[in-house]
Amino acid sequence: MTTLQPSAPPADLPAGSVLSVRGLRKDFTLHTIDGRVVEALHGVDLDVAPGEHVALAGTSGAGKSTLLRCVYRTYLAGGGHIWFRTAAGDLVDVAALPDATVADLRGHEIGYVSQFLKAQPRRSVLTTVASAGTARGMARDAAREAAAAALRQVGIAEHLWDMHATVLSGGQKQRVNIAAGTIAPPRLLLLDEPVSALDPANRSAVLDLIARLERTGTAVLSVFHDLDAIERLATRVVVLGGGRVLASGPPEQILRDSSLPLEVAR
Ligand SMILES: Nc1ncnc2c1ncn2[C@@H]1O[C@H](COP(=O)(O)OP(=O)(O)OP(=O)(O)O)[C@@H](O)[C@H]1O
Ligand SMILES: [Mg+2]
């Protein structure tokens, strides 16, 4: 059993950052294959400031999704710290918080959108999106209005709003997911390939929505598999490789560096 050991934040964290990851480690023990250990992250350091969009890059298996899942606490970190500055101004270590506090942060301050919608059965599309807003503190009517606006923006036609989200197509689910993840913008938004199943027009609408969020001060940590989305949205690119940060810098510099293992669609 893992014991969570709270510790005091170091004095040298950037004052303005929403997220400061320090020495993050994560191993997986494959119990079905002789207990073999896969080392995914070996000491990752990373900061994200309000309004900043940090895109993670690196080859398949580099640990991008694992990093996002550790920050969202779907995975428990094997070592290191994940400092998150709350709206109240407290610095908390997501790697060591009790589950109840993590659940509260997820509802209010940290959003996570992957390519898969975890839709609750028998809940309509509009209710799915609106309840994400009420969970982040919006009044019920305001949440329904904001949900309608978000659904329009990502191109979900009105006749789909009272259908159950579970019956939608893959691309429709992905757009409902992004509408739910961005309504009442969280302080930190984690995106794992949020446009992978979308056609060009819908993809563009979703990228516009993400761009607008950054202007409202949301900090974004993302994984996109195409260079164009990274160039359009990211303020900084962090390249992971061998479980560590290999490079970090402005997109125009990093994406043109042929020595880096970038595996993005060009
Ligand atoms: N739940 C898990 N159990 C065992 N191993 C895992 C698990 N999740 C991730 N891994 C391993 O950790 C490593 C990093 O995987 P991760 O999914 O983070 O890569 P990624 O950079 O997101 O790759 P991709 O670009 O293909 O999505 C891989 O070797 C993967 O097999
Ligand atoms: Mg991944």
TrEMBL record:
Q: Does the keyword Nucleotide-binding apply?
A: yes
CC annotations in GO: plasma membrane
ABC transporter domain location is 19-266
GO function term, MF aspect, one: transmembrane transporter activity
* Superkingdom per UniProt: Bacteria
Report keywords, A-Z. ATP-binding, Nucleotide-binding
Q: Which InterPro entries match?
A: AAA+_ATPase (IPR003593), ABC_transporter-like_ATP-bd (IPR003439), ABC_transporter-like_CS (IPR017871), ABC_transpr_LolD-like (IPR015854), P-loop_NTPase (IPR027417)
Q: What is this protein called?
A: Phosphonate metabolism protein PhnL
Q: Which organism is it from?
A: Streptomyces shenzhenensis
